[in-house]
Design brief:
The complex is a heterodimer of chains A (322) and B (309).
Chain A (H helix, E strand, L loop, with lengths): L1 E3 H15 L3 E5 L14 H5 L4 E3 L4 H13 L3 E6 L9 H14 L9 E6 L14 H5 L5 E3 L4 H13 L4 E6 L6 E3 L13 E4 L4 E5 L3 H13 L5 E5 L2 E3 L3 H11 L2 E8 L4 H13 L8 E5 L8 H7 L3 H12 L1
Parallel strand pairs in A: 2-3, 2-4, 4-5, 5-7, 6-7, 10-11, 10-13, 13-14
Antiparallel strand pairs in A: 1-8, 6-12, 9-11
Helix pairs in contact in A: 1-6, 3-4, 7-11, 8-9
Chain B lengths: L4 H23 L14 H8 L8 E3 L4 H7 L3 H8 L23 E4 L6 H14 L6 E6 L6 H13 L3 E7 L2 E2 L2 E2 L9 H4 L6 E6 L3 H16 L5 E6 L20 H7 L1 H9 L4 H20 L7 H5 L3
Parallel strand pairs in B: 1-2, 1-3, 3-4, 4-8, 7-8
Antiparallel strand pairs in B: 5-6
Classes of the chains: A alpha/beta (322), B alpha/beta (309).
Chain lengths: 322, 309
């Protein structure tokens, strides 16, 4: 059936709430559906006791979710923009991520923190960032980054079933694209990559919005007789390194593309892991595509130039081919 | 609940004997890390936890030993935790500032000042949603009150009318600095006044006053009322942490302390001899140290195994 990424997210949350009384949604404006409709209709179906509107208090919201999760609930906490995760980091990093290990296994924090990032909407430098690499640096957190509607629903189902805290990073520019999805939500396991395109000449690992951009670049390369394989890891932690390494073993070339600032981005981690596992398979230096080391600009032509896309992926692919 | 004088005296002696031994063992390098002792503040832990059930979720902060002991954690397991041993409460992976004992309802202690407050709201919310009459309690010092999430949390707790009791141990110092240098608001109970909290300030060195003040709040919270804040004015006999030279304050004259010491005060009031409780507590602590020393250090890979469930 046809749906959108955002509707798939709503459907997956509703399914989780129907399946398990312990699931509740908490966040700013969630009972109103939020600015993108990511929780639209949930309050109507489940009531405002289970879809909790909160004041603008990200730190307390996240702390409440941690405490509730430790006490047997399964919260979905929405942080409206990943830029505001900065305000919830103490609870996420110092409490949620460490509670299980620091308590010697006594505590569990089965919460899902949904948030969204990405530029392209002229929202300026405080509503457009891609901060996922920070979160991948924290042992104890899982980090999920779906690029399409079916994965958004399937990964959310798996995240809800996971006993660990999972950060679920959506992308605002993907929300409203019409896509085909299965009629029933099919859980997508955390830590399994998706091969979005088969190819034998180079591998492009792309995250979130860059998956579609990589597919556009791959079509352009195909016009030149170059077949690119496109892999969407879908989950950054845990990372499905095996699928990437297997692909590089066949293509011998690797481009890694994400919208986040290239400097210190998750692409650096993937590159390091691949060269450690498959150095002898590589015929060219690994190329990375990411945003420049600058805040996201507001002015439309500047923002358009700042955000990496198919052109940058295509250029990087050509560089690996010499 | 009737004041259990002998019970709280026993608890206070257990905490006092434990903390004093921990201070010695810290100097001997047998317990590790940052150690914050609650010597002098025993009445709050004993007066509050003596009335809680094992299923009442409680949260503590960096000065957590007394709360853990009063909530029911075995002394041997707490001592083993401070020594980083396998048989510690948290298998030696938490340490002094991160004591957890879910069996007795100690749901977390945090080294980040104030970070435990919103988590206690979450436990209160969970209790209410499950239809249980559990009451969530969070201990914190006056230093936590100036943290951002304290203010976020009191607003939210009031808005949602959560069955939650905030217990402030106001010892007059946030780490090394007197409260008067951190806030214009002298009484912590006044900070929550605009939020329509049920609130009170009691002499935190008078265990009977703590018991009575907390008991009234607890009875109301069991019926679903809340939130509430009990401010206990107390005094930290030690520095902020073990090794803190505490130059920043005047040493309390010995005579003054005789007046303030919550254990001596209760004993004077009850007109009973100290020996029985004191002796029993020291014997228990001796056994706890023996238990902890005999426990092995955890295997090297344990933290990695427990990073994810």
């Amino acid at each position: 059936m046809k749906t959108t990424y955002v509707k798939a997210l709503v459907a997956a949350q509703a399914q989780a709430m129907r399946d398990d009384e312990r699931v509740f949604v908490i966040g700013e404006d969630v009972a109103e559906g939020g600015p993108y409709g990511t929780t639209a209709g949930l309050a109507e179906e489940f009531g405002t006791d289970r879809v909790l509107n909160t004041p603008i208090s990200e730190s307390a919201i996240c702390g409440v979710a941690v405490g509730a999760a430790q006490s047997g609930m399964r919260p979905i906490v929405e942080v409206m923009f990943i830029d505001f995760v900065t305000l919830a980091l103490d609870q996420l990093v110092n409490q949620a991520a460490k509670a299980h290990a620091m308590s010697g296994g006594q505590l569990s924090v089965p919460l899902v923190l949904r948030t969204q990032g990405g530029a392209g909407r002229r929202w300026g430098a405080q509503h457009s960032q891609s901060l996922e690499s920070w979160l991948t640096h924290i042992p104890g957190l899982k980090v999920v980054m779906p690029s399409r509607a079916a994965d958004a629903a399937g990964l959310l189902a798996s995240a809800m079933a996971d006993p660990n805290p999972v950060v679920f990073v959506e992308n605002k520019t993907l929300y409203f694209k019409s896509e085909d999805v299965p009629d029933q939500i099919e859980p997508v396991p955390l830590g399994r990559a998706h091969r979005a395109r088969r190819g034998s000449d180079l591998t492009i690992v792309a995250l979130s919005r860059l998956v579609d951009e990589a597919l556009v670049a791959a079509e352009r390369l195909a016009g030149e007789g170059i077949e690119a394989e496109v892999i969407d890891p879908r989950t950054l932690v845990p990372l499905d390194l095996a699928t990437i390494v297997e692909s590089v073993g066949r293509t011998n070339r690797l481009v890694i593309a994400h919208e986040a600032v290239e400097h210190g981005g998750f692409g650096a981690e993937i590159a390091a892991q691949v060269q450690a596992a498959a150095f002898d398979d590589l015929d060219a230096a690994i190329e990375r595509v990411g945003a420049p080391f600058a805040p996201v600009p507001f002015s439309p032509p500047l923002e358009d130039a700042y955000v990496p896309g198919a052109d940058e992926v295509y250029e990087a692919a050509k560089r690996t081919l010499g | 609940m009737d004041f259990d004088a002998r019970g709280v005296l026993r608890t206070m002696w257990r905490i006092r004997a434990f903390e004093e031994r921990v201070g010695q063992l810290k100097r001997a390098d047998e317990v590790h890390g940052l150690i914050h002792l609650s010597v002098g503040q025993e009445a709050v832990a004993a007066g509050v936890c003596g009335q809680l059930r094992d299923d009442d979720p409680a949260y503590s902060g960096h000065r957590a030993h007394g709360h853990a002991i009063a909530k029911g954690a075995p002394l041997g397991a707490v001592m083993a935790e401070l020594m980083g041993r396998s048989d510690g409460l948290c298998k030696g992976l938490g340490g002094s500032m991160h004591l957890v004992d879910t069996e007795h309802g100690l749901m977390g202690a945090t080294g980040v000042v104030g970070g435990n407050v919103p988590m206690a709201l979450g436990s209160a919310l969970a209790a209410r949603r499950a239809g249980r009459d559990q009451v969530a309690v969070v201990f914190f010092g006056d230093g936590a009150v100036q943290a951002g999430y304290f203010n976020e949390s009191v607003n939210l707790a009031a808005l949602w009318e959560l069955p939650l009791i905030l217990v402030c141990e106001n010892n007059g110092f946030a780490e090394f600095t007197a409260r008067s240098e951190h806030s214009k608001v002298e009484r912590v109970s006044d900070v929550v006044a605009p939020y329509d909290f049920t609130r009170a300030t009691v002499d935190g060195n008078d265990v009977a006053a703590v018991w009575e003040g907390f008991g009234d709040f607890l009875a109301a919270a069991r019926r679903g009322r809340g939130p509430m804040l009990l401010e206990c004015l107390t005094y930290r006999l030690r520095g902020h942490y073990e090794g803190d030279p505490a130059h920043y304050r005047e040493a309390l004259a010995k005579d003054d302390w005789q007046e303030k010491d919550p254990i001596l005060r209760l004993q004077r009031h009850l007109e009973i001899e100290t020996d029985e409780f004191e002796r029993e507590a020291h014997a228990e602590v001796d056994a706890a140290v023996e238990f902890a020393r005999a426990s092995p250090f955890p295997p090297a890979g344990l933290m990695g195994e427990l990073t994810y469930e």
